[in-house]
């Protein structure tokens, strides 16, 4: 009997993916839920597990092929499945079962919590407890990082942290075990010593097993390393659990050559030139977080894909500031939230997007998708980087609803509590660099969106009004847009409509 292996759900608005790597070849024995291949989309990397135990039959979609949702990837022949890999998974769970002989309490596993739609793995960034520490129920044990958010992991029970399975820096999947809690224990140095010793002894074994029987490198990578005579120990793996991928081998092969070429030909342009010992001793190297790496990749992809252009204007903020000063106390008393500037900008942009719908659209292949809704992304700076929570159906919301939603999402973003669903599906973005003192900037598009508005610092400047020089609170506005879909006329019209609505807020009430 054969079982089909199909493309899983890829997340909101993602309709296709590319087969990046097959970790098994036809004829290989696979266990249920063992990873077969890895798919890449424009947002995330998705692992495809085996739906059943057996033997990998035919691979329908080879590496490099683009496939749609629910497309057939391969088949599994269920007869002759080997249970060996399953025993390997169950082995760590056997250790806690042996512990009750020494009057220890019930053992409870600490598992990876829900990571959100389309997120299949995370990196253990920080452990706040160590082996042997006493923990309370719901006390935070560690923090995980995904491509978008940080996730806190609370203790499922009160007791003692008996074992840490996934150390800091380890990449874990959505169903992995992180640690073990011994319920009802009081802790102490004597109790924790064996566990600590065990954790220490296991750490080198885990790292040394890379490329061995615990973490199997990609077949394509192993083949390339064999052909090129490259030692696997010299290759830094970027896959799950440090798995070496084909591109990692290519990087390891090219890195020394590239460095020597750069140093020999143009030393001043080398990515990293020689550093003297005194300077090196005062430097610090910190591994880039998953969030920062994703931000870097997506912003560069945006520049490489879109025909990005920026147009500028300036707005007299007197009207908004006077209206806000007049009603802010009454607004706060009635709605329980402060009246800020952002709700005026959201409303003004929603008004302008109705007149220039292509700024609210996106390109999908050879088609333009026009959206009859406005899901407004509001960029928020956090200690870990920039995130963009989405205010859904902002065009149908009141000033009070917008302010409440933005305030709540901003707080949760800074605390790392936003879910993936709350950061997906935006159709337009507003970024406020003015809160940091920026006077002028060119914001980068948030793909696949076609427009982003940059707000800046409000600064008093001399302006000419009716032949007289007067001091006005002015703000520069910048609209970056994808010139593939938005013409210059449409971009300028959009920005002028935003300017008009802000300089005379009554136009928003009259829908003018």
TrEMBL record:
<comment type="pathway">
    <text>Amino-acid degradation; L-lysine degradation via saccharopine pathway; glutaryl-CoA from L-lysine: step 6/6.</text>
</comment>
<protein>
    <recommendedName>
        <fullName>Dihydrolipoyllysine-residue succinyltransferase component of 2-oxoglutarate dehydrogenase complex</fullName>
        <ecNumber>2.3.1.61</ecNumber>
    </recommendedName>
</protein>
<feature type="compositionally biased region" description="Polar residues">
    <location>
        <begin position="257"/>
        <end position="269"/>
    </location>
</feature>
<dbReference type="Pfam" id="PF00198">
    <property type="entry name" value="2-oxoacid_dh"/>
</dbReference>
<feature type="compositionally biased region" description="Basic and acidic residues">
    <location>
        <begin position="194"/>
        <end position="203"/>
    </location>
</feature>
<keyword id="KW-0816">Tricarboxylic acid cycle</keyword>
<dbReference type="InterPro" id="IPR011053">
    <property type="entry name" value="Single_hybrid_motif"/>
</dbReference>
<comment type="similarity">
    <text>Belongs to the 2-oxoacid dehydrogenase family.</text>
</comment>
<feature type="region of interest" description="Disordered">
    <location>
        <begin position="80"/>
        <end position="108"/>
    </location>
</feature>
<dbReference type="Pfam" id="PF00364">
    <property type="entry name" value="Biotin_lipoyl"/>
</dbReference>
<keyword id="KW-0450">Lipoyl</keyword>
<keyword id="KW-0808">Transferase</keyword>
<dbReference type="InterPro" id="IPR004167">
    <property type="entry name" value="PSBD"/>
</dbReference>
<dbReference type="InterPro" id="IPR023213">
    <property type="entry name" value="CAT-like_dom_sf"/>
</dbReference>
<feature type="region of interest" description="Disordered">
    <location>
        <begin position="251"/>
        <end position="284"/>
    </location>
</feature>
<dbReference type="InterPro" id="IPR001078">
    <property type="entry name" value="2-oxoacid_DH_actylTfrase"/>
</dbReference>
<feature type="region of interest" description="Disordered">
    <location>
        <begin position="184"/>
        <end position="218"/>
    </location>
</feature>
<dbReference type="InterPro" id="IPR050537">
    <property type="entry name" value="2-oxoacid_dehydrogenase"/>
</dbReference>
<dbReference type="GO" id="GO:0004149">
    <property type="term" value="F:dihydrolipoyllysine-residue succinyltransferase activity"/>
</dbReference>
<feature type="domain" description="Lipoyl-binding">
    <location>
        <begin position="2"/>
        <end position="77"/>
    </location>
</feature>
<dbReference type="Pfam" id="PF02817">
    <property type="entry name" value="E3_binding"/>
</dbReference>
<dbReference type="InterPro" id="IPR036625">
    <property type="entry name" value="E3-bd_dom_sf"/>
</dbReference>
<feature type="domain" description="Peripheral subunit-binding (PSBD)">
    <location>
        <begin position="216"/>
        <end position="253"/>
    </location>
</feature>
<feature type="domain" description="Lipoyl-binding">
    <location>
        <begin position="107"/>
        <end position="182"/>
    </location>
</feature>
<dbReference type="InterPro" id="IPR006255">
    <property type="entry name" value="SucB"/>
</dbReference>
<comment type="function">
    <text>E2 component of the 2-oxoglutarate dehydrogenase (OGDH) complex which catalyzes the second step in the conversion of 2-oxoglutarate to succinyl-CoA and CO(2).</text>
</comment>
<keyword id="KW-0012">Acyltransferase</keyword>
<dbReference type="InterPro" id="IPR000089">
    <property type="entry name" value="Biotin_lipoyl"/>
</dbReference>
């Amino acid at each position: 009997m054969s079982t089909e292996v199909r493309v899983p759900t890829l997340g909101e608005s993602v309709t296709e993916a590319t087969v990046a790597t097959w970790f098994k070849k036809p004829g290989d024995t696979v266990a249920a839920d063992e990873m077969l291949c890895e798919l890449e989309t424009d947002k995330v990397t998705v692992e495809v597990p085996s739906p059943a135990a057996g033997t990998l039959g035919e691979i329908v979609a080879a590496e490099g092929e683009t496939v749609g949702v629910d497309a057939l990837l391969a088949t599994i022949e269920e007869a002759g499945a080997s249970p060996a890999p399953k025993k390997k998974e169950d082995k760590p769970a056997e250790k806690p079962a042996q512990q009750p002989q020494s009057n220890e309490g019930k053992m409870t596993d600490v598992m990876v919590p829900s990571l959100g739609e389309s997120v299949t793995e995370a990196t253990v960034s920080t452990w706040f407890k160590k082996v042997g520490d006493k923990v309370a129920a719901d006390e935070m044990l560690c923090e995980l990082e995904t491509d978008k958010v940080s996730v806190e992991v609370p203790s499922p029970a009160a007791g003692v942290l008996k074992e840490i399975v996934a150390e800091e820096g380890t990449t874990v999947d959505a169903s992995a075990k992180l640690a073990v809690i011994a319920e009802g224990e009081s802790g102490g140095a004597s109790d924790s010593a064996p566990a600590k010793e065990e954790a220490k002894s296991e750490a080198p074994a885990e790292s040394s097993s890379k490329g061995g029987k615990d973490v199997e490198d990609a077949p394509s990578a192993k083949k390339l390393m064999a052909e090129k005579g490259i030692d696997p120990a010299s290759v830094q793996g970027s896959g799950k659990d440090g798995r070496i991928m084909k591109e990692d081998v290519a990087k390891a092969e090219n890195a020394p050559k590239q460095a020597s070429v750069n140093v020999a030909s143009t030393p001043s342009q080398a990515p990293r030139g020689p550093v003297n010992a005194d300077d090196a001793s005062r430097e610090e190297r910190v591994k880039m977080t998953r969030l920062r790496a994703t931000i870097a990749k997506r912003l560069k992809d945006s520049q490489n894909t879109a025909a990005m252009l920026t147009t500028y204007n300036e707005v007299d903020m007197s009207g908004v500031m006077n209206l806000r000063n007049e009603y802010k106390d009454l607004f706060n008393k009635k709605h329980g939230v402060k009246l800020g500037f952002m709700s005026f900008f959201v409303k003004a942009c929603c008004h302008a997007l109705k007149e220039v719908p292509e700024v609210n659209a996106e390109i999908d292949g050879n088609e333009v998708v026009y959206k009859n809704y406005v899901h407004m992304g509001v960029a928020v700076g956090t200690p870990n980087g920039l995130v963009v929570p989405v205010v859904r159906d902002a065009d149908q919301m009141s000033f009070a609803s917008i302010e409440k939603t933005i305030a709540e999402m901003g707080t949760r973003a800074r605390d790392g509590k936003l879910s993936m669903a709350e950061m997906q599906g935006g159709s337009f973005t507003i970024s406020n660099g003015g809160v940091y003192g920026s006077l002028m900037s060119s914001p980068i598009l948030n793909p696949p969106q076609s427009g982003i508005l940059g707000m800046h610092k409000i600064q008093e400047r001399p302006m000419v009004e009716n032949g007289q020089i007067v001091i006005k609170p002015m703000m520069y506005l910048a609209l970056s847009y994808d010139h593939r879909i938005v013409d210059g006329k449409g971009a300028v019209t959009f920005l002028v409509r935003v300017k008009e609505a802000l300089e005379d807020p009554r136009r928003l009430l009259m829908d003018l």
